[in-house]
Amino acid sequence: MGDYQVDRECRYPAYMSISDTIVASATAPGRGAISIIRLSGDNSLRIAEALAGKTFTPRLATFGKLISDGLLIDTGVWIYFKGPNSFTGEDVVEFQGHGGPVVIQTILRTIIAQGARLANPGEFSQRAFLNNRIDLTQAEAISDLINATSVSAVKAANQSLSGEFANRIHAIVADLIHLRTQIEAHIDFPDEDIDPQNLREFSDQLTNLHHHLQSLKLAANEGARLNRASDVVLIGEPNVGKSSLLNALANEPLAIVTNIPGTTRDLIRHDLLLDGIELRVTDTAGIRATEDVIETEGIQRARNAIETADIALCLFDERHHTITESLVNRLIGDTTSAAIGIIRTKNDIQSQPTINQTNYPLIEISAVSGSGLNQLKDWLLNELNLNSNAETPFLARERHVIQLAIALNYLHQAMSQPVNLETIDLLAEDLRLTQNALSEITGSFTSDDLLGSIFSTFCIGK
Amino acid sequence: MDYTRCFDVIVVGGGHAGSEAAHAAARMGCDTLLVTHSIETLGQMSCNPAIGGIGKSHLVREIDACDGLMAKITDHAGIQFRVLNQRKGPAVRATRAQADRVLYRQAMRHAIETTPHLTIFQQPVSDLTIEHDRVTGVVLAMGLELKAKTVVITAGTFLAGQIHIGMNQQSGGRAGDPASNELSKSLRDLPFRIARLKTGTPPRIDRRSVDLDSLPEQPGDFPTPYLSMMSQGTEHPTQIPCYLSRTTEKTRDIILQNLHLSPMYAGVIEGVGPRYCPSIEDKMVRFSDKPTHQVFLEPEGLTSFELYPNGVSTSLPYEIQFDIIRSMDGCSQAVITRPGYAIEYDYFDPRDLQATLESKLIENLYFAGQINGTTGYEEAGAQGLLAGANAALRAQGKDSWTVGRDEGYLGVMVDDLITLGTQEPYRMFTSRAEYRLALREDNADTRFTEKARSLGLVSDQRWKHFNDRQEQITQEMHRLKSTWIRPSDPTIEQLNSILTSPLSKETSAHDLLKRPEIHYHDLVERGEFLGHKDPSVSSQVEILVKYSGYIDRQTDEIKKLKKNEQVKLPTTIDYQSIVGLSNEVRQKLIDHRPETLAQASRISGVTPAAVSLLLVHLKKLDLMNMAS
Ligand SMILES: Cc1cc2nc3c(=O)[nH]c(=O)nc-3n(C[C@H](O)[C@H](O)[C@H](O)COP(=O)(O)OP(=O)(O)OC[C@H]3O[C@@H](n4cnc5c(N)ncnc54)[C@H](O)[C@@H]3O)c2cc1C
Ligand SMILES: Nc1nc2c(ncn2[C@@H]2O[C@H](COP(=O)(O)OP(=O)(O)OP(=O)(O)O)[C@@H](O)[C@H]2O)c(=O)[nH]1
Ligand SMILES: [Mg+2]
Is the CB of B377 under 6 A from ligand 1? Predict the structure, then answer.
């Protein structure tokens, strides 16, 4: 335990006396920018000193490494704030590094492996408030923060829990419930005439479960595209360079590029991994008034694509120097919920400066020279990821991966001895904890739900 | 009964909850009055005369660890004892006893009648006297008012009880006993949330009319197990077997053809039955593809010819019951002695109770037993103990007693009831207990006796027995830790033959026992050391060693959750004013009125974010109080 003293004035000493250690990235993990990882709680100092390989003095910034298992992960500045003189009132350590999302992910995982857990939305501020580090006037603000971040967390979690990932994890949970139902029925109703289950079958189910969970974790870990990637749609008048941009982002000639307006008719999609974040970029038909049946259909598809997009990039070339709200609306309508960015294309041949009269950000690029592409990528990452209060899809997935690892650990324990009657209560316990871990992803499953499953599977009664 | 006295505790109802409640209060030295309809029915088993079973025996052992009655009485009245799940892990083993109904009642009555400080009076209670939301006594049917510091209500299935046999209905608390309609009416005038539940019982049959020779016999275990830790081995009466009959396809046809005559299926009964199949009708409807269901034929007693067919509870008309019974294996000539029936009754929403079983709405008033939505003698008895002890503590002006989910099945049950309420008759199952591995039948004393002693519930005799046993367990543990087994020992070959990997270095007996393939008796048989003279001590030590890894892990989990258990939510809290809570969460909190943050977090739909918001709100209130 750290040397944090229970504040005598605080009337919740019970709550405060054991504080588990939490960790989160305190800044948006944007590329190139400085990133801050913050730890708070009794074990912060121990964990940080272990990773840095040196000891810290309160309030003294030390330049140093962050090493895990002998591997250098990042270098940066460490600062230790001893509780109660810290933001949260607990022992806090901050690490300012260079990492982009992938490095941050590695750092978070390393710290979690040392016994911290990912902070809940708003938890740092909440602790600060509970420890009298933030005064009464801020109470509402703290509540609003918890509320807003948890709303975004739910959204982000839903996004992570979609597509293939969702299918696979739901299948695993269903199998787990099936197995637990059999075992618990066996335990709670030995006198009932349940078909004598052979333990071998339990064992097989267990092995299967373990296998599926392990491969899901592996896949999730490697950032395989298990969930719905974020949708980025390129939209603009014909010939502005949409297909050229797609090809430039993809680094291969996916879409046909010609100087004939109206080249692209269909939606062309490309999945892209940007610093561990999955994007699906969609090229569309140029928008204009036309009689051509095929082109009209293409334009309709382009408009549909905007409906489901997370980000709409509106492309303009040298034909428009002044970009107005109405130009943008003409392209995408005014009902989309997507984030909007303005792209001025072909800046290798642009002669006049662009005047942006909208509130949307403007990025100038050239598909030919490649200029501005990095800036665009940064902006995309920012849009999807960052907003330091909001829970990001990236973080949500990270939470899910952590839960998978915890669940897998329990299953591992369950498999450490052969399934037999004498230890079936231990097996049941490991499976309960496995389920608890997965419930953090898929929603709670209570003992009453389990009984419900037993009663609907077996005929039981006095 | 001296009507001029102000009693410390008045218990209303002499069923299983009431008996334990009154006995507990009296043990604690309180001047206690037990008022019940009939002294003859003290300890009456309304239904199946069986005590214990999975999950339930855990409760019985917990009552016993507090020196309560149920286990001791069952040991005196039990005519068949078995340990269920014998071959499974110790956490899920459970003792079950078939009791002689008459012996049980006699033993219970004797125990109640011979307890100091405990007075019995036969009279229906028709009302409560309440002043300023605080109960001050009871009113008897004959009009007399009695004063009390605290009152415990344990009216069981009697409140506005309605008995159904086919389409025929009559008022009753159980077959042969009147319902308690006056009290039901008076209680409905108070601000409680009241709803209806239902349960049922099978017809009884005369054993002389059953072809028992054709049925498989199910004997009790030998040596005969005990329920009470204090039993010596001389308590049990003669032991007799049960028999196993089965329903047939014919049974199913009869039931399915006559479903419209079942009050439940015809919609006459509005009360909710449990999801587990309580009636044979339910079984046939929900599992119609199952050709046969087993029915245990259990003797009702040594002096009775009646058998209790466990598994065919029904409220179909008598004619159909007759056909059903006769369609079962070995029962073609069976004679029914009493009809089966279903009963509907009032129950009080247990979310209106505190963890002490005191009402949140009326001070000094406690509820225990089936009236809180549970079913079963054991569930009732355990609540009776808790409510009785708390009523006594209140009367004595002492701090109350609550049981955590990590301490006992009693804690699990009460917490489930008061935080979640119940939509069906609540029965204990081991799967309800998340800390199942730690809450075992075999260690109920370790979990309860010390606390119970401090409350004044435990006699000197049991206290001494408990301490001796704990001491022996500690010593035996110590001995195993300091008994070394070496690869060079002459007997090592024998030992290696049962180890999955041979012993490679000097190991203590304690550490060796941690290996799943090794048992205490293996070590004794192979001459590694002498076995302890008391097998219950050696088995306790063995369990402690084998479970230690799991128990440690649970202890960590418990510690983490504990902090929220200790954050109290004031009753005055205004959920409408809490910033950020969704309407759904608000409504849930208003309905459930949780006492602690932990309880709030266990209510379904209350998110972790909502818990955080609550915590921030509490802190805010606190800061505001300090400022003013
Ligand atoms: C038909 C039926 C079938 C059941 N089947 C089973 C089963 O198979 N297994 C099982 O475990 N449990 C079964 N139960 C439940 C079990 O009987 C109860 O859960 C248990 O008896 C409840 O105990 P109790 O102390 O709460 O109430 P009860 O045992 O019902 O006792 C209530 C007592 O209160 C007295 N009383 C009521 N009102 C008043 C009043 N106004 N004034 C004075 N005295 C009053 C009554 O006379 C009675 O003595 C069944 C119950 C019934 C009725
Ligand atoms: N100089 C220059 N030319 C470009 C650039 N991007 C695109 N072009 C040219 O602009 C023309 C149209 O490019 P496309 O990418 O096909 O345009 P589009 O928006 O997909 O057009 P449609 O599919 O017809 O709607 C081609 O001749 C490209 O070579 C750029 O960055 N610089
Ligand atoms: Mg194109």
Answer: yes
Q: Which residues of A touch B617 (CB under 8 A)?
A: 139, 143
Q: H/E element holding B554?
A: helix B535-565
Instruction: Tell me which residues of chain A, numbers 389 to 448, contact chain B at a CB-CB cutoff of 8 Å.
Output: 417, 421-426, 428-429, 432, 444, 446-448
CA A306 from chain centre, in angstroms, equals 23
* Structure token digits, residue A426: 């231990």
How far CA A312 is from CA of A163, A236, B352, in Å, comes to 22, 10, 54
Q: Chain B neighbours among A 150-169 (CB < 8 Å)?
A: 150, 153
CATH 1.20.120.430 range(s) for chain A read 163-224+393-457
What is the location of CATH 3.50.50.60 in chain B?
6-158+168-193+348-460
User: Which residues numbered 71-100 in B keep a CB inside 8 Å of some CB on A?
Assistant: 84-85, 87-92
Per-residue pLDDT tens for A238-297? Answer: 999 999 999 999 888 989 999 999 899 899 999 887 765 668 899 999 999 888 899 899
> Strand pairing of B94-99 and B78-84?
antiparallel
Contact at CB, A150 and B626, closer than 8 angstroms: no
Task: Give the Cα separation of A189 and A457 in Å (integer).
Answer: 13
Q: What is the pLDDT, as a whole number, of residue A137?
A: 81
Which architecture, in CATH terms, is A14-147?
A: 2-Layer Sandwich (3.30)
Let me know how long chain B is: 628
Q: Suggest the residue from A406, A413, A441, A462 to mutate for an interface test with chain B (most B CBs closer than 10 A).
A: A462
Q: Is the CB of residue B250 less than 8 Å away from at least one CB of chain A?
A: no
Confidence band, pLDDT 50/70/90 cuts, at residue A195: low
Which own/partner pairs from A320-325 qualify as long-range (CB within 8 Å, at least 24 positions apart)? A321/A352, A321/A353, A321/A354, A321/A355, A322/A354, A322/A355, A322/A357, A323/A354, A323/A355, A323/A356, A323/A357, A323/A358, A323/A362, A324/A357, A324/A358, A325/A357, A325/A358
β-pairing, B341-348 with B162-165? antiparallel
What is the pLDDT confidence band of residue A392, given thresholds at 50, 70 and 90?
low
Strand partners, B410: none
Q: Rounded to the nearest whole angstrom, what is the distance from the C-alpha of residue A350 to the centroid of ligand 3?
A: 20
CATH number of A230-386: 3.40.50.300
Beta partners for B206? Answer: B306
How distant is the alpha carbon of residue B10 from its chain centre?
22
| CATH homologous superfamily for the domain B6-158+168-193+348-460 | FAD/NAD(P)-binding domain (3.50.50.60)
Phi, psi (5° rounding) for residue A431?
-70, -35
Alpha carbon distance, N-terminus to C-terminus of chain B: 52
Question: Which contacts qualify for A284-287: CB closer than 8 Å, 24 or more apart?
Answer: A284/A233, A284/A234, A284/A235, A284/A242, A285/A238, A286/A236, A286/A237, A286/A238, A286/A239, A286/A240, A286/A242, A286/A261, A286/A262, A287/A235, A287/A236, A287/A237, A287/A238, A287/A330, A287/A331
DSSP for residue B420:
I
Residue identified by tokens 């000097």 is B506
Amino acid letter for position A252: E
Output the CA A239–ligand 3 centroid distance in Å. 7
Local confidence band at A1 (pLDDT 50, 70, 90 cut-offs): very low
Averages of pLDDT over each 10 residues, chain B, 628 residues: 95 97 98 96 89 96 98 97 92 95 96 97 95 96 96 92 90 85 89 90 96 95 94 92 94 93 77 74 85 92 94 92 96 95 92 96 97 96 98 98 97 96 92 95 97 98 97 96 90 86 91 90 86 92 93 86 85 87 90 91 86 89 82
B620 and A462 within 8 Å at the Cβ level: the answer is no
CA atoms within 13 Å, Cβ hemisphere of A62: 17
